[in-house]
Structures are given as structure tokens and as C-alpha cells.
Inverse folding.
């Protein structure tokens, strides 16, 4: 098969949770540019539809839908909507994240809220979408973890800024990598491949002195940009990676090389 055909997502239906966020948007664009019909979710239907309308204007097949993954009824409603409107699901990019916990000393209620969205809710959505993909004969799941799921944060980067890394985040992101390996084995009989991307920070007008400290430690000399994740996610979503499952790819500009 020609490599361009292997990478093509034409005729495929893809879902990206949190598809209007910092990494979600380029993921939606990348999948749609590879030919997929992409459903981008936000808790706000208006927000997801505004992004979809803008991308449709550039010729991409993008649709906006509402999803709160912490709400089981919302997860089921999205599942029904995909079945009724799109008929199938081939690709799920498990990307959404909420940040209710900001610091190590925050109350346990913040940790619990984070778990209900990023752990329980995330798994609820993942399991429902895997069932949908299985019903159509198989497909791919791409989990979006973080370099903090593999490596500890470098707290010295945050000195003199309001930035921090709360402990729920690496806990969940490390778990997501382990879950990827579990699901790769569990779902292989249903012809579903499950892989994971662990990105480094994407540039978002970060404050000094964080930015220059961070960038000085990255061999490629910059934070991730809008395009960096597109090819990686299309690789894992498409037949170009058809003999890869259970893998975690760290995409951090060489920071941990
Ligand atoms: N930003 C980085 O530098 C970085 C680095 C490494 C890894 N990552 C990973 O990249 C992924 C995306 O992160 P991001 O930085 O793009 O975050 P973001 O800009 O905050 O986007 C996260 C998205 O998740 C959605 N979301 C929040 N709560 C939700 C809920 N209860 N149900 C459904 N969706 C919900 C939000 O949508 P609405 O608010 O519109 O509902 C938002 O669009 C995450 O898995 C994150 O761990 C990010």
C-alpha cells in the first residue's frame, strides 16, 4: 500500500474530546486534514460549533458536539448522537483534561474533583467509545498523556511565576500510559489498537522567566507548536501504525533524551 494511503483517514469518523483546547484543536485539524470526519467536543456546544464552523470554512469535515465526561448521561448522549448522526466511530482521541487542582497543598476536594473528571469520567467515555469502535469492526484509540506521566516536573522552572504542577496531573497521566498497555491487550481481539502520546508543553504565551528556562533545557530549543502533534496523532490513528499497539511516544523536543 502506498504510504499516503496508509496515512489517509478518508471515510473515517474520529472523535476528539476537548477538541477546542490547546492540543485538542491541532489534533482535530490534523485528523480532518488527513481526510477524517471529525467530531470536536467541548462542554459548551456553542464553543464546539463555532470552531467547527470556522474549520468547515477551510474545507474540513469538522462537527461540534457537547460533552461533559464527568456526567454519565452526557457521555451516553454523545454516544447515541454519534450512532444516529455518523453511524460509526473509527478513531477516538482521548484528549480532554480539567485542572481543578492547582497546587500540592490544595484541599482533597480538588483532588477528588480532578479524579471524577480526569479518571472516572475519562474511563467512562473511553469504555463507551471503545464499544462503539468495536461494533464497527475495529479502529484506533489515541490517549493523550503528558511527559509528566513519565518524568517528574522540574519545579525550578516555575520559580518567580504563578505556575506550578499539581500532583493529581502526573498521577493521572502516568496511569493513562499504564491503561494504554492494558487496553492494547484487552481490545486487540476487537481489532482496536491503543497508543499514547506524551507531549511536552505547547507554547501558550508563557511568562518569563519560565519560558527561557524551559526552552534552554530543550535540545530542539523551543516549546511545542500548533503543528507538532498533527503528524504524530495521524500516524497512531491511521493504518500507517497498523503493527503498533500499547506504545507511548514522548513528544518533548528531546527534553528527556
Ligand atoms: N498544554 C500542554 O502544554 C500539555 C502538555 C502535555 C500534555 N498535554 C495534554 O494535552 C491534552 C489537552 O490539554 P490542553 O493543554 O489542550 O488543555 P486545555 O487547553 O485546557 O483543553 C482541555 C479541554 O478539555 C475540555 N474539558 C475540560 N473539562 C471537561 C469535562 N468535564 N468534560 C469534557 N471535556 C472537558 C475543555 O473543554 P471545554 O472547557 O471547552 O469544555 C478543554 O477544551 C491533555 O490530555 C493534557 O494532559 C497538554
Amino acid at each position: 500500500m502506498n504510504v499516503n494511503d496508509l496515512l489517509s483517514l478518508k471515510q473515517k469518523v474520529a472523535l476528539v474530546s476537548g477538541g477546542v483546547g490547546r492540543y485538542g484543536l491541532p489534533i482535530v485539524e490534523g485528523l480532518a486534514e488527513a481526510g477524517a470526519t471529525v467530531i470536536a467536543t467541548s462542554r459548551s456546544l456553542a464553543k464546539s460549533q463555532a470552531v467547527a464552523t470556522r474549520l468547515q470554512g477551510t474545507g474540513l469535515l469538522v462537527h461540534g458536539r457537547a460533552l461533559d465526561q464527568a456526567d454519565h448521561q452526557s457521555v451516553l448522549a454523545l454516544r447515541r448522537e454519534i450512532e444516529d448522526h455518523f453511524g460509526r466511530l473509527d478513531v477516538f482521541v482521548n484528549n480532554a483534561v480539567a485542572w481543578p487542582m492547582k497546587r500540592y497543598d490544595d484541599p482533597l476536594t480538588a483532588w477528588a474533583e480532578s479524579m471524577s473528571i480526569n479518571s472516572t469520567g475519562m474511563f467512562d467515555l473511553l469504555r463507551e467509545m471503545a464499544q462503539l469502535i468495536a461494533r464497527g469492526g475495529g479502529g484506533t484509540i489515541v490517549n493523550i498523556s503528558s511527559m509528566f506521566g513519565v518524568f517528574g516536573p522540574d519545579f525550578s522552572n516555575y520559580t518567580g511565576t504563578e505556575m506550578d504542577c499539581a500532583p493529581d496531573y502526573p498521577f493521572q497521566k502516568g496511569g493513562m500510559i499504564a491503561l494504554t498497555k492494558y487496553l492494547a491487550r484487552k481490545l486487540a481481539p476487537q481489532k482496536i489498537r491503543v497508543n499514547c502520546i506524551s507531549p511536552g508543553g505547547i507554547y501558550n504565551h508563557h511568562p518569563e522567566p519560565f519560558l527561557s528556562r524551559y526552552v534552554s533545557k530543550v535540545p530542539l530549543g523551543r516549546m511545542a507548536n500548533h503543528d507538532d502533534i498533527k503528524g504524530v496523532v495521524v500516524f497512531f490513528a491511521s493504518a500507517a501504525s497498523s503493527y503498533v499497539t500499547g506504545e507511548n511516544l514522548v513528544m518533548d523536543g528531546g527534553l528527556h533524551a
